[in-house]
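One chain given next:
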Amino acid sequence: MSSPAGEHVYSLTFFFTAQVFCELFHDWPDALTQLGHRDTIGLSPKVILHEEPIDPRSLLLLSQIMHCPYQGQAASLFLEAKVLELMAIKMANSFGSTQKRNRSLTKRELESVHHAYHLLLDQSQSAPCLEDLCRMVGLNRNKMNQGFREIFGDTVFGVVKKAKLCRAWSLLEQTDLSLVEVALEAGYKNQASFTTAFCKHFGCTPGSLRRS
């Protein structure tokens, strides 16, 4: 996949030995049960490749990992915690859980929930209200809320909030916009509400992040 000229592309890779992975996650998904075993020829371990879109929670964690605010031992602890949190999310999202396998939503309803999710990410700056979103994808309110909790582990409002905060984080790092302009671009009505939400979620103010 190519990227536009002049656009920076970042890559992060995390490595776990099979032994460490097994110690961290005692109940492996079916897809990983053979990960720690050598093949019949005995030459190399099994290789598993899985690709999927980056959800807002993972995007937030990746941003925090790439811009660790600490140094020394504090940085090591911070990064280790964030990587483990990211792994927990990917384990749950990528390979599913008993709850996901027992979903009561139909295939069409699941497709509608995914459609709604992408609409929210595309329009996070001025996201439609829940009623309008339900009407756009043809789902009722209960099914929409149920689908978001089962698939994304959050409410519709929670997904929108995280998407807005991730956008704000990127704007603070990649642009020279003022804090007021960042707040408005991210979809907040004023700087005060933006600062409150940002500080509560990231543990630091937008101004301190930019200064760091």
Observations:
- Confidence is low (pLDDT under 50) at residues 37-44, 97-102.
- The chain is about 60% helix and 0% strand.
- Residues 27 and 161 are 32 Å apart (CA to CA).
- The two ends are 33 Å apart (CA to CA).
